[in-house]
Amino acid sequence: MGQSSGIGVLDKAVQVLVTAAANPVALAELCASTGLPRATAHRLAVGLEVHGLLMRDDAGRWTPGPLLGRLAAGATDPLVAASADVLPRLRDRTGESVQLYRADGLSRVCIAVSESTAGLRDTVPLGARLPMTMGSGAKVLAAWADPATQRAVLSQAAFTERTLAETRRRGWAQSVAEREPGVASVSAPVRDQGGSVIAAVSVSGPVDRIGRRPGVRWAGDLVEAAAALTARL
């Protein structure tokens, strides 16, 4: 069970939280991983969900919730700190919502956001965990991932190895209605000082507002913002 605080219900809740944070889990998997009775595991997971510490994906599995992202953002993270200046400027330039994603296994996590002030928004909650199999941010992160991760992603992805090669060649990726109907996005890789890709910065919004070729409009702005993030690290 790991360390004990002496507060049984707290220790069990942390078990559930840590298990769901590692990989999306259904109730049966949660019980198997934690050793908790089904009723206890369900009660704790639902309670954590109510408080935003967990959420459920389309398959009904528990994953980290948006509150975890907000809490994590308060910790010292150079990339998140750098985004505080860069993302709002990119949002103002494009007029659309801006996100920063970091890869986590076969998922990508939204670690920073700057919302559009327009009436119709493409909202990705801070801390949201999205698949690496669809969307421009996923293409960017997968394009520079290690070979094993690439193979795992491509076995389920809406895009191909050729798409990843094209992403590496031009330095950005776009998607139209891949992750969500009616939503388009364009993303660029963020590198550390050593040149390794550590994140993807994205602009997203309704297709009927930003068009079906968002890369033509904003690829240059995304690449510039990515370079600004690197410079601030």
TrEMBL record:
One of its GO terms (molecular function) is DNA binding. InterPro entries: GAF-like_dom_sf, HTH_MetabolicPath_Reg, Tscrpt_reg_IclR_C, Tscrpt_reg_IclR_N, WH-like_DNA-bd_sf, WH_DNA-bd_sf. Coiled coil: none annotated. Pfam families: HTH_IclR, IclR_C. The keyword Transcription regulation applies. Residues 67-233 form the IclR-ED domain. Keywords: DNA-binding, Transcription, Transcription regulation. Residues 7-66 form the HTH iclR-type domain. It comes from the Bacteria. GO terms for biological process: negative regulation of DNA-templated transcription. This is IclR family transcriptional regulator.
